[in-house]
Specification:
heterotrimer; A mainly alpha (about 325); B mainly alpha (about 280); C alpha/beta (about 250); A: about 325 residues; mainly alpha; MetI-like fold; flat; C: alpha/beta; Rossmann fold; six-stranded mixed beta sheet; four-stranded antiparallel beta sheet; globular
Chain lengths: ~325, ~280, ~250
């Protein structure tokens, strides 16, 4: 035998080691399970806390909270409508602006130029856009974008606030481009070559192949990418808070709604949470947080489900 | 027929032109923003800037040392919490993909990834700040760790899933117990992927402000106490950028520059890591 | 007799409700080379993995009956201990990519945190690699990672790794099916040398290999041990019609 010690002694040592190892195996498996359970507990905890702390507001204001047009903490009147409008406006305007860019990037990097130094450069640029913290977008937006928007507003004849829904939507648009873009790149690359080659063999141009083969094939996946971008936009807080002007009144006209100041659910929480000095006020803010939670989670989950269904086909 | 083909070809070329235009147009705002931050902020950074706390209003000078230290401490604590928990959960998900727990746990990871950071901040406020009676670095760290979890978990899970099953089998057949197989064979082989997930999650949270608004709050002084409020880079930027004072704006630009550099460096290191340390399988 | 090293008594294996190995009774002696052959899905690999308790690691995998190693039922023993006493070599060579060749050989000790002196480790590495006919080829690159080795060399490294644990019994699960012909013959030559010190059980789907390397051969068909006999007799004058059909290529 190799080792110089008494073989029987070695055997016994080994057996003892194996016995204690069995115990540790079980402990380890239990820890793995515990950590996964912890995750479920965190989500349940978040939900429970949000519901508990907004209970007072839910009970006293009821469902009318959602379309209440007045938010006046001084008079203890709380309505979520202004923030729903602000959130939806900023998110959808941001989406409309960003989607063409996201799609263009996805088509370019997925189909026209998937490899090479130029493609790597663009890919890195997109990742960089996603990596820049939102506070920096907000800071830059406040000092550079807002004056530009103000001049623009003067030119088109609206009240030149500078800050407001429009500026927020612009900066938001830049921030959410990477989400739909990177998903789009992956999806477009997944289109099977035989499908494209078949179309080319029939004499289709590049544009026609993209339009008639690639786009339909990836349509649901690209939609999921848009949903993910939307989810990101809905939850964005800091950049929007700095640019949106923090007004809780509902605008009179659509022009005012877009080019004037406003608030989103996230920005009003960020601004007023520490000022909420009585429980009714705080509870109403938390209820906004609850609504925000549900909306973003549902949109994100739908987006993710579509993607898993798509990638499993 | 010739004319038709000609028109179709022209359409194709125009389309490509539009695509290329839009695709590269987006780099413009990125470049403008980066250059502006560098221009405004790089000049602020000097030794004094890095080692002093902000000066009161009206006084020139001052720095961001409290925010630098604060960010460092809170990211450290958040990592200490999130890395083990995240890795363990990721290991469970990759090892037991078909169980009910894996389904619900995975669902919760997806949900957590979509939760807005401000909501995490409010919840941790009620969990820790209220019971403790004070804003604290601890609550800020906990909020940040919750935001780190989904990234660490998913990257661990995906890295380990790519490893061949034969690796585990070889170790088990030698009489190595399960926990040692995972910790001494599987995790080291997936090290590059797991580490890059960790670095990405850190890059994400050093720039997060919303979770810290009502947890760590902010502190004009240098502090190392976990149970007291603590300043952080993004929070300082927020406070000082939205203030009416030019001196404070300058501080915020300098801090933005530093923050941006950190994020960039972390992302570059992550890229180099994954390229270099991929274990050949 | 006392030279029996492995004995299966009414051994059955299941995947969930799927009865994959049916009532196997077999007795294997020390220093024999046993080939286990049969068509795909006949249960030969599942049976093999039952011996060193690797089978139960698969979710929903269960077994009934006894497998005696030196008289003791492995299913009454500590599973980790059983696996450390029995060596296994797999179909695809699987050296640990994050360990050097040296570390791979003593991986069974390293990964278990067993402390052995450097001198002892050196002895183990040299002896195991020599027994696996790999020492000359790698002795100057022991501290490199094994990824530059050919398939045959990697497989011999895995054999050395198994030998280093000083097992009495080594199980081989189709060890050459992923190798080229030259590597295959070098591994087959190894079987002949190894039998002086070890007992080998080799699952193979290659009949000719079974005929070449083994003393006795077991033929499995649809989960049953159909015939177990002297290799020469099995291939020239099998007792069971099913064995005869398999050998003549009626099914494979």
């Amino acid at each position: 035998m190799f080792v110089k010690e008494n073989p029987k002694f070695v055997e016994n040592k080994r057996l003892k080691l194996s016995n204690s190892q069995l115990k540790w195996e079980t402990i380890f498996r239990r820890i793995l399970i515990a950590m996964s359970v912890l995750l479920v507990l965190i989500i349940l905890g978040v939900l429970a806390t949000l519901i508990l702390e907004s209970l007072q507001s839910i009970k006293s204001l009821g469902i009318g909270f959602l379309w209440g047009k007045v938010w006046d903490p001084v008079s203890n009147v709380y309505g979520a409508y202004p923030f729903l409008v602000g959130t939806l406006l900023t998110s959808f305007i941001a989406l409309i602006i960003s989607v063409p860019f996201s799609y263009a990037i996805a088509i370019y990097l997925g189909e026209y130029n998937p490899k090479g130094w130029l493609s790597d450069l663009l890919k890195n640029a997109i990742e960089l856009i996603a990596a820049v913290p939102s506070i920096i977008y907000g800071f830059w937006g406040l000092f550079v974008l807002v004056p530009i928007v103000r001049t623009f507003e003067m030119k088109i004849g609206v009240a030149p606030y500078g800050i407001g829904v429009f500026s927020s939507s612009l900066i938001l648009a830049v921030m959410i481009i990477p989400y739909a873009a990177s998903l789009g790149i992956t999806l477009i690359r997944m289109v099977p070559s035989p499908l494209k080659e078949g179309a080319y063999a029939l004499g289709a141009t590049r544009f026609e192949v993209i339009r008639s083969v690639i786009m339909p094939y990836t349509r649901s996946g690209l939609f999921a990418g848009v949903l993910l971008s939307l989810g990101r936009a809905l939850g964005e807080t800091m950049a929007v808070t700095m640019l949106i002007g923090n007004t809780s009144a509902v605008a009179n006209t659509i022009k005012d709604a877009i080019f004037g100041p406003g608030n989103t659910m996230a920005s009003v929480i960020a601004n007023e949470f520490t000022e909420a000095d009585h429980t009714q006020y705080l509870s109403a803010l938390i209820e906004l947080g609850l609504v925000l939670f549900f909306v973003t989670v549902i949109i994100n989950l739908i987006g993710k489900r579509i993607i898993t269904r798509f990638t499993n086909e | 027929m010739e004319a038709r083909i000609g028109i179709r070809n022209t359409k194709s070329v125009i389309f490509k032109g539009i695509i290329v235009f839009f695709a590269f147009l987006i780099t413009l705002p990125l470049i403008i923003i980066l250059l502006y931050i560098i221009k405004q902020g790089a000049g602020q950074v000097n030794w004094h800037f890095l080692t002093n706390v902000p000066a009161p209003v009206g006084e020139a000078g001052g720095g961001i040392s409290n925010a630098l230290l604060g960010s460092f401490i809170m990211v450290l604590i958040a990592s200490v919490i999130a890395i083990p928990v995240g890795m363990m959960a990721g290991i469970y998900l990759s090892e037991n993909p078909k169980t009910k727990l894996a389904y619900y746990s995975g669902l919760c990871v997806d949900i957590l990834q979509g939760v807005p950071s401000i909501v995490v901040g409010i919840v941790v406020y009620f969990w820790i700040v209220k019971p403790l009676g004070t804003f604290s670095a601890l609550s800020g760290s906990v909020a940040l760790s919750i935001m780190m979890l989904p990234i660490v978990i998913r990257s661990t899970e995906q890295t380990l899933r790519l490893l061949p099953a034969s690796l585990k089998e070889a170790a088990l057949s030698l009489g190595v117990p399960y926990h040692r197989v995972i910790l001494k064979v599987i995790v080291p082989c997936g090290f590059a992927g797991i580490l890059s997930g960790i670095m990405l999650s850190i890059a994400r949270i050093i720039g997060e402000t919303a979770p810290l608004l009502f947890t760590a709050f902010g502190n004009p002084y240098l502090s190392t106490s976990v149970t007291k409020p603590m300043e952080s880079l993004p929070h300082l930027i927020f406070t000082y950028a939205t203030s009416p004072y030019d001196d404070w704006h300058n501080l915020a630009w300098g801090a933005s520059f530093i923050l941006l550099m950190f994020v960039l460096v972390l992302n570059i290191i992550t890229k180099l890591l994954t390229r270099k340390w991929k274990v050949q399988l | 007799m006392e030279s029996t090293i492995v004995k299966a008594e009414n051994y059955n294996s299941y995947f969930g409700d799927n009865h994959v190995v049916k009532d196997v009774n077999i007795s294997i002696n020390k220093n024999e080379v046993i080939a286990v052959m049969g068509p795909s899905g006949c249960g030969k690999t599942t049976f093999l993995r039952g011996i060193n308790r690797m089978h139960e690691l698969i979710p929903n995998a269960t077994s009934k009956g006894k497998i005696l190693l030196d008289g003791e039922n492995v299913y009454d023993m500590n599973a980790i201990y059983v696996r450390s006493k029995i060596g296994m070599v797999f179909q695809r060579p699987n050296p640990f990519p994050n360990l050097s060749i040296y570390e791979n050989v003593v991986a069974g000790y390293l990964l278990n945190g067993l402390k052995i002196s450097k001198a002892d480790k050196d002895v183990i590495v040299e002896k195991s690699l020599t027994s696996a006919a790999l020492w000359k080829e790698v002795k100057d690159s022991l501290h490199k990672k094994g990824t530059f080795l050919s398939g045959g060399q990697q497989q011999r490294l895995c054999i050395a790794r198994a030998i280093a644990m000083q097992p009495e019994l080594i199980l081989f699960d189709e060890p050459t099916s992923a190798l080229d012909p030259i590597s295959t013959s070098s591994v087959e030559a190894l079987f002949h040398e190894l039998k002086t010190n070890y007992t080998l059980i080799i699952v193979t789907h290659n009949m000719q290999q079974a005929a070449r390397v083994s003393d006795r051969t077991a033929f499995f068909y649809m989960g049953e041990l159909v015939e177990f006999d002297d290799t020469k007799k099995m291939f020239t004058n099998p007792a069971d019609q099913r064995t005869q059909n398999y050998i003549t290529g009626r099914f494979s």
